[in-house]
Amino acid sequence: MRKIRKGDNVIVISGRDKGRKGAVVSVLENDTVIVENINRVKRHTRANPQMNKTGGIIEKEMPMHVSKVALFNPATQKADRVGVKRLADGKRVRFFKSNGEMIDA
User: Which CATH number is 28's domain given?
Assistant: First the structure.
């Protein structure tokens, strides 16, 4: 079970975007995540008339390692660590380590 999933609100804990919050757009295979409006870079692209693409400078979000983000806890308004525990019925749920509150019940 992944500790950070698509749609989670996260806060960046290191790097040039430290302290910024956003929602996870996608989780990639190699332990990286793409967060909306975080880690934006400018890519210079060449025009391709056969595929009807225009050239120019495009801004887009790049993946960042999952260790650079932490789940945002709305109760404490801070970044928080995540744990996984198994309920009595066998279902696995994520919870915040600071206050034990379940994320997805």
Answer: 2.30.30.30
> What confidence tens digit (pLDDT) does each residue in 41-96 have?
999 999 999 999 999 999 999 999 999 999 999 999 999 999 999 999 999 999 99
Residue 45: which H helix or E strand, with range?
Answer: strand 40-45
In sequence order, the 6+-apart residues with CB closer than 8 A to the CB of 11 are: 19, 20, 21, 69, 70, 71, 72, 78, 79
Q: Give the per-residue pLDDT at 104.
A: 75
* Phi, psi of 86, deg, nearest 5: -105, 130
Our count of domains for the chain comes to 1
* Residue-wise DSSP of 67-94: GGEEEEETTTTEEE-EEEEE-TTS-EEE
Q: What is the pLDDT of residue 2?
A: 87
- How far is residue 53's CA from residue 79's CA, in Å, rounded to a whole number? 40
Domain assignment of residue 73, yes or no:
yes
Predicted model pTM: 0.84
Is 34 contained in some domain? Answer: yes
